[in-house]
Amino acid sequence: MAPELPRILLLPTHLQADELRELEARIPTLTHNAHEAKVILGKISRPERALFELRRLKLATEPVALEGAEGDEAIGDKRGRSDAAEVPSKRPRLSGSEALRSRADEGHVATLDLLGGSGDVVLVLKLAWLLDSLEQNVVLPADDYLLYQGRKISSHSAQASNPGTPQPRKEDETTRSASAVNDSPYSKRTTRPGTSSSTASDGRLHSEPPTLHRETTSEHEVPLPPIPDFLHTTYSCQRPSLVSPPNATFIAELKAIRTLRLLRGDQVGVRAYSTSIASLAAYPHLLQRPQEIERLPGCGPKIAQLYQQWTEDGCTDETRKAKTDTELVVLKTFYDIWGVGDTTARQFFKKGWRDLDDIVEYGWDSLSRVQQIGVKYYDEFQLKIPRDETETIASVILAHARRVDPGFQMVIVGSYRRGKPSSGDVDVVLSHPDEAQTLDIIERLVSSLEKSNFITHTLSVWTKNSERGQAPLAWKGEGRRAGSGFDTLDKAMVVWQNPQDKGPHRRVDIIISPWKTAGCAILGWSGETTFQRDLRRYCKVKMGFKFDSSGVRSRADGSWVDLESSERGPAPDMETAERRVFEGLDLEWRPPAERCTG
DNA sequence: CAGTAG
DNA sequence: TGGCCTTACTG
DNA sequence: GCCA
């Protein structure tokens, strides 16, 4: 009794001719017409490949709500390092238990209805679905095999895809950013330009009608999805960029290339790839073809070409070759040591060192103090820090600050504030409405946390530039008064371990800001690198300002520009201050979760 | 001074 | 074709 | 590598 199968089209991709024939023989409901197939099967494993196949079949679809399967690959976790010969400088080995979390059981709720359901929905599944179903003699749920789910559209209905996400509420002054994580900020902006155009007071507001370039290339009438108006800017601080964009897997490939460029010393390449990554991270549609890419800012023919190669081959030449290039693999290992950058990584390699044991054995004494710490805790620093632990660490820091004065306030910044489920390190910004309280607190705080054995090592302390380092600010101008304290912020970069449970050592940054620039401080510490870079560039080019986390200045005369106080006085809290900075910079408010530029 | 950090 | 974010700290 |  064969299971009752839906109409199936079998893709020939990656199948030998005889394999193909044999499989086809086992499918009673086989069709060769893509339009009547309910299920498309193939020996493929990525949603992008699925789209590529649909294109080849000339089957136009729009995506149906489906949180894309993320290609969240851990970096290199195969470190076959010998435990033999632990050098005097012992590098503690982690006790067993490595992968505590199994991926892939994120609770698949909805079982897809294969037989019933609206007739115009087509599923692209992995071939394994068929094999498993036949083996077990039942039609298995498609969930675990699903690569793509789309609704067939006739070539003339170019409906903008809105994959059924709930309409999010408007952000207003009082909304807290944390809740934004669950939203789908795309949906409110993917509506056609014109209907919901942003209120960006950017001057060069792009409220043009949906004039899509006439990209009616030789190709068929399937129109490219509209470019959201916010993607006409080259500044990533002017648009939402979410944590898990639809094209995350392709972005991951570009990030891999970026890392390779870094290791090779190609800094310009790093810049360029960062720009394209940030642009793609803001693109709310799953890519369908290379032409879409070239329309995006920071993306040109090269990136489009890489995309094509990647959809067809599953990876690019550059990453494929790198995988077997020992030099690059070793460089990456070295680069991951805290305190070792790409230049030093190459130097280590040139000395003939090939793994961490070589460094310990042959070069220990040549390492800087922080590099020694980086090597010693190499494994532990690679571990991600879950959100609840970040909160625990932060609350200890705040408690110690409040022991000095109860008026201290704190915002956890960094990737935590962006809503990531785990972080590489912990960043917190502390401030106090009374400026006298933030003056020399950093050293007292650090020593207090050292005495309580939370801080095991202090990597560096940026101490009191405010007082001593006023000279370096060539941004002279008489506007700056002595002791006003808005030079580069005081901060401490430390190694942390809970003295009670003795968990892994963690990297923690504690930043102190005077109240009047606390908005800039949390803004400067919450976005990803490209967001920051573009924010500074935007301030320079568009505003004639010089932004940094310790304040905004006029480039004309170097005078401090206060964007954080209103007529009603200083901001009541740091988040409000941050909103005022956005306003003062003529930027639309961007919740931290939308600052994920990759 | 070069190198590194966020 | 030049420019691409910023700057103090460390050794 | 892309943009002004």
From TrEMBL:
<dbReference type="InterPro" id="IPR018944">
    <property type="entry name" value="DNA_pol_lambd_fingers_domain"/>
</dbReference>
<dbReference type="InterPro" id="IPR001357">
    <property type="entry name" value="BRCT_dom"/>
</dbReference>
<keyword id="KW-0234">DNA repair</keyword>
<dbReference type="Pfam" id="PF14716">
    <property type="entry name" value="HHH_8"/>
</dbReference>
<keyword id="KW-0227">DNA damage</keyword>
<keyword id="KW-0479">Metal-binding</keyword>
<feature type="compositionally biased region" description="Polar residues">
    <location>
        <begin position="176"/>
        <end position="201"/>
    </location>
</feature>
<feature type="region of interest" description="Disordered">
    <location>
        <begin position="156"/>
        <end position="227"/>
    </location>
</feature>
<feature type="compositionally biased region" description="Basic and acidic residues">
    <location>
        <begin position="75"/>
        <end position="84"/>
    </location>
</feature>
<dbReference type="InterPro" id="IPR022312">
    <property type="entry name" value="DNA_pol_X"/>
</dbReference>
<dbReference type="InterPro" id="IPR037160">
    <property type="entry name" value="DNA_Pol_thumb_sf"/>
</dbReference>
<dbReference type="GO" id="GO:0046872">
    <property type="term" value="F:metal ion binding"/>
</dbReference>
<feature type="compositionally biased region" description="Basic and acidic residues">
    <location>
        <begin position="203"/>
        <end position="222"/>
    </location>
</feature>
<dbReference type="GO" id="GO:0003677">
    <property type="term" value="F:DNA binding"/>
</dbReference>
<comment type="similarity">
    <text>Belongs to the DNA polymerase type-X family.</text>
</comment>
<dbReference type="InterPro" id="IPR019843">
    <property type="entry name" value="DNA_pol-X_BS"/>
</dbReference>
<keyword id="KW-0239">DNA-directed DNA polymerase</keyword>
<keyword id="KW-0539">Nucleus</keyword>
<dbReference type="InterPro" id="IPR043519">
    <property type="entry name" value="NT_sf"/>
</dbReference>
<feature type="domain" description="BRCT">
    <location>
        <begin position="124"/>
        <end position="147"/>
    </location>
</feature>
<protein>
    <recommendedName>
        <fullName>DNA polymerase</fullName>
        <ecNumber>2.7.7.7</ecNumber>
    </recommendedName>
</protein>
<dbReference type="InterPro" id="IPR002054">
    <property type="entry name" value="DNA-dir_DNA_pol_X"/>
</dbReference>
<dbReference type="Pfam" id="PF14791">
    <property type="entry name" value="DNA_pol_B_thumb"/>
</dbReference>
<dbReference type="GO" id="GO:0006303">
    <property type="term" value="P:double-strand break repair via nonhomologous end joining"/>
</dbReference>
<dbReference type="Pfam" id="PF10391">
    <property type="entry name" value="DNA_pol_lambd_f"/>
</dbReference>
<dbReference type="GO" id="GO:0003887">
    <property type="term" value="F:DNA-directed DNA polymerase activity"/>
</dbReference>
<feature type="region of interest" description="Disordered">
    <location>
        <begin position="70"/>
        <end position="102"/>
    </location>
</feature>
<dbReference type="InterPro" id="IPR029398">
    <property type="entry name" value="PolB_thumb"/>
</dbReference>
<dbReference type="GO" id="GO:0005634">
    <property type="term" value="C:nucleus"/>
</dbReference>
<dbReference type="InterPro" id="IPR027421">
    <property type="entry name" value="DNA_pol_lamdba_lyase_dom_sf"/>
</dbReference>
<dbReference type="InterPro" id="IPR002008">
    <property type="entry name" value="DNA_pol_X_beta-like"/>
</dbReference>
<feature type="region of interest" description="Disordered">
    <location>
        <begin position="558"/>
        <end position="577"/>
    </location>
</feature>
<keyword id="KW-0808">Transferase</keyword>
<keyword id="KW-0548">Nucleotidyltransferase</keyword>
<comment type="function">
    <text>DNA polymerase that functions in several pathways of DNA repair. Involved in base excision repair (BER) responsible for repair of lesions that give rise to abasic (AP) sites in DNA. Also contributes to DNA double-strand break repair by non-homologous end joining and homologous recombination. Has both template-dependent and template-independent (terminal transferase) DNA polymerase activities. Has also a 5'-deoxyribose-5-phosphate lyase (dRP lyase) activity.</text>
</comment>
<dbReference type="Pfam" id="PF14792">
    <property type="entry name" value="DNA_pol_B_palm"/>
</dbReference>
<dbReference type="InterPro" id="IPR028207">
    <property type="entry name" value="DNA_pol_B_palm_palm"/>
</dbReference>
<dbReference type="InterPro" id="IPR010996">
    <property type="entry name" value="HHH_MUS81"/>
</dbReference>
